[in-house]
Amino acid sequence: MSTDHSRLRAARPDERDRLQEIEDLAGTRFSGLGLIDESLDVGFPPADLDRLIRAGQVWVACDAADRAVGMVIASVREDAVYVEEMDVLAEHGRRGLGGRLLNTVCAWARERGYAAVTLSTFRDVPWNGPFYRRHGFADLPPAAWTAGMRAIREDEARHGLRTEVRVFMRRELDAPTSAA
After folding, report:
1. How many CA atoms lie within 13 A of 178 on its CB side?
2. What is the pLDDT of residues 119-152, one digit of tens each?
3. b/e string for 118-148 if b means 16 or more Cβ within 10 A?
4. Per the count of CB atoms within 10 A, which of 20, 74, 116, 149 is most buried?
């Protein structure tokens, strides 16, 4: 159950720098875990972030001063919505913000008729794989990976992620209910 009263809303174009700051700060939680070759690690591409913000596919969780403290970035890949990135600042963690951001993406996908939301994450890091499993995502075996997922995995390897400890996950969405 959420104990945070932060407001969720679509990200604004003037918040791109703040979203990159959130990504960088959240990424420090992985330091020392041996999961990322930090010399190869790159942030989310700014041009892609700008495009997805303009498309209304980036949402933020804001504090009482309307300052972003968490975010989720979604794209559409191979007839599913893909969670590109989701980060919540550590000092705002464990209050339900991640779940609320994730539910926002799932609702957006469902409203647009997509059957599923997919993502790639670290299989066993508590705030990664186990978190998503608690929110209805299931691991996909390599035999179920799409061509796009294989390309994502290659890209992750090029950017220094230890791919053998990562997993693709999928959450099936219910069809939107129609008003009677």
Report:
1. 2
2. 999 888 878 888 999 999 999 999 999 999 999 9
3. bbbbbeebebbbebbeeeebeebeeeebeee
4. 74
Write down the H helix ranges in 58-146. Answer: 97-111, 129-134
Sign of CA dihedral 159, 61, 103, 136: positive
Q: How far apart are CA 61 and CA 68, in angstroms?
A: 6
Q: In what order do the strands lie in the sheet with 58-62?
A: 7-10, 58-62, 68-77, 80-88, 116-122, 166-172, 138-140
How many secondary structure helices (H) and strands (E) does the chain include? 5, 7
Q: What is the pLDDT of residue 161?
A: 82
Q: What is the pLDDT of residue 143?
A: 94
What are the pLDDT digits (tens) for 42-82? 677 888 999 999 999 999 999 889 999 999 999 999 889 99
CA distances (Å), origin 36, targets 40, 42, 126: 8, 11, 16
Q: Shortest CA distance to 44 belongs to which of 5, 8, 87, 76?
A: 87
**Closest by Cα among 43, 45, 79, 77 to 150:** 77
What is the Cα–Cα distance from 49 to 16, expressed in whole angstroms? 7
